[in-house]
Amino acid sequence: MTLHEIDILTELDPEWMGHVRKRWLRLMEIAVWGDLRSRSPGSVGKVRRRTLEMGEKWRSVFNDRAWIPQVRQRAKNFLGSVLSLRDSLLSLEKAAKDLEGGADYAEFAQILAEMGQAVTGPLAERENKLAVALERLSQVTQDEEGVD
User: How many CA atoms lie within 13 A of 45 on its CB side?
Assistant: First the structure.
């Protein structure tokens, strides 16, 4: 696998990235300024923190990796970022289960579902292709080194 092939797998559509960014910004706006109600004290604050954390993970996924010269490291960096994003999304979804209403709850839930679809759709496809590519790259490296 060449750097160019890895770049193709890790390069995301700028229009899609812009859409995800706008939707996350709206999610963050609702988490901070919106009318969300919860069953227990502190739950809305936890949702805010988890929403911010997820935004940081999206940023990591969207980062340019051209500065990483090794093919394997570039692929691993992207995969690690996607896995961190997936974990962050799960943490936010868990925290959001304590929300029970408010004027902005429906929109918050809808955008959160969109974020989940983005992670399990386009990113999951690339994640799977990169995992296969890394496996092949590992096999080639082992063959070249004479490792069984």
Answer: 3
